[in-house]
């Protein structure tokens, strides 16, 4: 096998001289932070993980599951090479790219810290592996769990009481005094939820740096992202994520506060973390932070993250504060509040995989609940005590955090590190943030909308968002997850509620190759046959768009558990709370997940450490190790294969060493399935009738997979609508698809399809659009510089200025006829006239819709454009210089 002790150190964390528990200071200087020295005196010591109840707490329980002969590859979501290959804030490739690390998709290569240390191949996550043991412990405590009112428990706040114990100024990352809640994030839950733009505002001046009409700006901003199969409603835990940069990022160069400057800096950071920096993006942050470089895949010093981890309350969608003020099934009560602070510079490119030097123990402070992750960040965590109040976490509990949030480094004073191959600068959420405004709002788990009239045994609501496409794969994130994991989480488990959805839809009578089978555990062969068939059927299901509703949104039954199931999951977790057995696992199932049981071919069974083979159906509690040669570098390291076949890459097989957890930009979704009653392919567009609605199609911008924008005329005016969205003029009707010559509408109630064609009006669409009229006063106040800056963040803001209509000659695109957008003054200020035909941008002719989209993205935030227009019979060039507008605006304001 391909591993050695350097692999051991990098993946599991290094331990040498662990008996050294001397205290030392953590350096937390920040050249752009104005905290005035807060953090000086923050002290910890080193803890020897060998002395922990679980010496390898950085290896999560998910890493110990079986893969059902490779049909369930949950490994790829952490153990990948892609982020490293793209130089995106990661130096820990874990899928065979670096020989010293090995391939963690192919091997259970758990290795001890030393040849005399405890084995790492033993699964010590007892609560997850044997939930009956946890039940017995709680029963022995004399606790009747049946008497718990979990609904009331979830709706009882425990965050505010913890926040009240944080001393000092909430605007500073460090309270600056010795306290159990010293590093509790300075995010006041009384200020939540965030406003519509994602910024957290307070009505208390002490919580904010400056104010606007809506309140005091606290610096925190909510992040809405595509979740992994870790914290989702189906797993029983859901996240809120908030980011804050140091106050210099909120200031203009003269030191005055400015929300627009701060928003631009956050957008620049988003580009950097998501690998979307363009040549015309600023090389430094703006305003007073101009001395700070924008670095590919890295956060600036002083970045803060606050991460409340909530229970799941399926009635919570943010519309009823008596249930919960938070959307996305996020309960009032939190399980944990987590915090990250970027304290030191970390340059992953300076350390080759395998170069990590020996470390000592885990550096941190149990009384204050924080640890050093060894890769530039301080991590802090607060979790429920036995009574449900938040308390600081111990280093053994925090070791689980380092396992997922770390990286490789080599320092003068090395410390314990771990990490995965998928993170960007130790983070998970920001890389998967939805681009633009959709991603700057409270985490809402795909725009969840609760249906409070439903009984507690059925799907409690629906998603308002589709399945976003992965940047590299071109497939929906959920689709790909279902196809490769064939489960609802990284455990590969399939809750009964999801089984029910799949069983109802996947039937031979519905055009599938077979009915969805139950897992037959009577023999290894029957189990593996059933699992292989499930993978085949799952891929048929997603290929048909079966995981989507007819409007393109994700089926609620795949995301949101019935209330009864959610409350039962909360009660199981509460057993961990009252027993305080967090070090034995936080994920508790009704019974041992089948993925922890042995169903390998009896002729090639998995064995225990002592060589005893497992029998069919037995729980796998430990894995074999190398014992042949005590002098070997891999002596006593795990040596069993995952059974994922690297000779069969996805999609033919299930192996993918290069999974990149980033979304396409601009954001695109899996296309909606054929409407109900439509068998096979959708009817030819020519056979779909023209709409009877009083609408006309005056322009379109087409994107791949039927996505795009349409300019519709109604009742004398025009409006822009995006595919997948409901028409504000006609409830229950949405724009389903945008194609080269037509736009497709769908009636939600019936699934009935109608079309709109360019140049063709429906019988009822007789009104004429109002003429363009813009006064000189309006033009004087137009800020094209601000418009350009906004368009750099969200290219589709260009539609505020202009509505394009494709001009097709002899079947070929020749340009776009331009008319004013939502803000006609912008159109006029740019020197455009109604009826202009845009032929080229900066000399590049527009010859296809795809090329137009690329130019839109490329030049959205540029300083100067040269537009080639056909105006009447003349072809003219119109320069648009945003820099001149900026200078002119400055001159006027000065």
Automatic annotation (TrEMBL):
InterPro entries given in the database record: PDZ (IPR001478), PDZ_sf (IPR036034)
Highest taxon of source: Bacteria
Signal peptide, first to last residue: 1-23
Keyword field: Signal
Residue ranges occupied by any PDZ domain in the UniProt entry: 817-871
SUPFAM superfamilies in UniProt: PDZ domain-like (SSF50156)
Record bears the keyword Ribosomal protein: no
Name of the featured protein: Type II secretion system protein C
Organism field: Thiothrix caldifontis
Upper lineage: Bacteria, Pseudomonadati, Pseudomonadota, Gammaproteobacteria, Thiotrichales
